[in-house]
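hey
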């Protein structure tokens, strides 16, 4: 069984987009529940400007409140040096830096040019320096930008190269608004893995156009073994038109488990955690497996079928007498 690494992002990518403010205690309880599920990494929150992302303005309190589980890495999104300093004060395992490979999306999301972002992130990497904190860079709109359209593969590889030269541990290829399609995913993933064998490469899909599971299969075929997913399929970037939920953790996990992959994540515990989400966010989630149940969650045979079966048996018995 091939080992895959699942990274849960609901409390960051999911909660950042919710209209209702989720209480700090509820966020902490949710992270603690996720910690018991077996994820390789949990993206807990983000240390962004509280004006830009008010839903996560309690990042310090959440990070200080959670109970760390051995074997789980706790990562947080960091947009600038100020965010890095705040995050470093909270004992994070990894800082997840973010910039977009598309100029208009970067300006919309981070209010600066890509070059300004790169310069800031280089400073962030210097601040984190030789501490035990790992650095990952999430590159948004890698498979297409809702304002610009396609982003050239070579340009994406160029940005990865610049960060690789700064010594980051990993990169995440983000399909911020669900523009990726399987053959594109397979081709870019294969190129990235071949050119940067030293990097931890994560794929981050949104299901905006229903292609997230298909894209995951394409990435698996290219050799990717690390995926972000969001409990209940929550998620979306408030600064990307048309963005909607991430690939749903339980739907992805259900598929991968059926296919025989070893994720170390417990589906029943994930489903139990997901069932608590509507109460927190105040609306139903797009989770399919939560609605339909697992593939072999069988239903009782309806009474009329049993009656019919008995009639068939007695007719057959009479006929043979
Ligand atoms: N944490 C807390 N406050 C921060 C901050 C941080 N990381 N970065 C900036 N601020 C504060 C500044 O202190 C300043 O506060 P003031 O108005 O009270 O003086 C205010 O935010 C504006 O600061 P400025 O440096 O001008 O930043 P900006 O307004 O250009 O915002 C970002 C830049 C990147 C910090 C902001 O756009 C952001 O946090 N975006 C979030 C992006 C995101 O997470 N998107 C979704 C996920 S991809
Ligand atoms: Zn996302």
């Amino acid at each position: 069984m091939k080992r895959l690494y699942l990274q849960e992002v609901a409390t960051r990518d999911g909660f950042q987009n919710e209209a209702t403010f989720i209480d700090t205690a509820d966020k902490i309880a949710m992270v603690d529940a996720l910690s018991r599920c077996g994820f390789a990494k949990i993206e807990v929150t983000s240390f962004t400007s509280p004006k830009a992302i008010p839903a996560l303005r309690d990042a310090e309190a959440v990070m200080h409140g959670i109970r760390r589980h051995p074997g789980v890495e706790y990562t947080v999104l960091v947009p600038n040096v100020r965010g890095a300093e705040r995050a470093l004060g909270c004992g994070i395992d990894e800082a997840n830096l973010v910039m977009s490979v598309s100029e208009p999306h970067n300006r919309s999301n981070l209010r600066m040019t890509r070059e300004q972002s790169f310069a800031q992130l280089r400073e962030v990497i210097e601040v984190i320096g030789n501490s035990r904190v790992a650095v990952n860079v999430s590159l948004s709109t890698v498979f297409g930008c809702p304002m610009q359209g396609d982003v050239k593969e070579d340009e994406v590889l160029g940005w990865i190269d610049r960060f690789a030269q700064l010594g980051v541990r990993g990169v995440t290829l983000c399909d911020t608004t669900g523009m990726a399609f399987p053959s594109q995913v397979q081709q870019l993933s294969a190129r990235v893995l071949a050119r940067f064998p030293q990097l931890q490469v994560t794929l981050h899909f949104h299901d905006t156009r229903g292609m997230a599971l298909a894209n995951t299969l394409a990435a698996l075929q290219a050799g990717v073994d690390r995926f972000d997913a969001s409990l209940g399929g929550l998620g979306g970037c408030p600064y990307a038109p048309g963005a909607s939920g991430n690939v749903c953790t339980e739907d992805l996990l259900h598929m991968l488990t059926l296919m025989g992959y070893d994720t170390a994540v417990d589906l029943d515990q994930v489903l139990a955690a997901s069932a608590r989400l509507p109460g927190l966010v105040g609306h139903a989630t797009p989770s399919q497996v939560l609605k339909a149940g697992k593939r072999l969650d069988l239903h009782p045979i309806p009474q009329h079928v049993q009656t019919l079966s008995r009639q068939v048996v007695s007719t057959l018995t009479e006929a043979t007498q």
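The first strand starts at residue 5 and ends at 8. The pocket of coenzyme A (ligand 1) is lined by residues 16, 46-53, 77, 79-80, 82-83, 86, 98, 109-111, 140, 237, 239 (CB under 6 Å).
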